[in-house]
Amino acid sequence: MNPNIFQGAVPHTTRAPKGYEESGREYHFTSREIFDNMAYNNRFLEYGEYKGNLYGTSIASVREVLNSGKICVIDIEPNSIQAVRSHELRAYIIYVKPPPPERLKETRRDSYITTNYYVNRPFKDEDFQEMEEAAQKMESDLSQFFDHVIVNDELQDSCVQLLAAARKAQDEPQWVPASWIRPTTES
């Protein structure tokens, strides 16, 4: 919404670029060998495979955004939350959770889901159950890392809450681990 303040990190991928894509704009297009080497050398915050291609968010891509003076916005997988909670990145974690199951069904009544198996299909009861279970597990396992929680009940309201949380994180002092501000002494 405000590209002068917020910017996403440009991810890496091993897939071929589409006709309109430029390396360094939508993705950093790279070979599987280079990608594997980057992963081996811990240069990604997160990475994974989708439809036979590798995708990842590199630490360097995040640094590039931060060094430009902008707030880096990334959507990360739950298993990567601890990786971004570091002195260098100082992440502010906003968890956007689904509403209660009844509301989720109501808001998704005429929506479709895209999967590997179906291009588009309506939501089914098991999809809602899966979302609810995943949300409960994420909260149970990771809630101590969340700086702010938003219930995605109404899209427009959630967006307003998200922007307010980002402003608050920017404007107000945040509690951080002492090790982030005190240099560690080596024996």
Automatic annotation (TrEMBL):
Pfam families in alphabetical order: Guanylate_kin
Protein name (record): Guanylate kinase-like domain-containing protein
CDD domains to which the protein is assigned, alphabetical: GMPK (cd00071)
Residue span of region Disordered: 1-22
UniProt cross-references to PANTHER family, sorted A to Z: MEMBRANE-ASSOCIATED GUANYLATE KINASE MAGUK (PTHR23122)
Top-level taxon in the UniProt lineage: Eukaryota
Organism for this UniProt entry: Perca fluviatilis (European perch)
Chain coiled-coil ranges: none
Domain Guanylate kinase-like: from-to ranges: 1-167
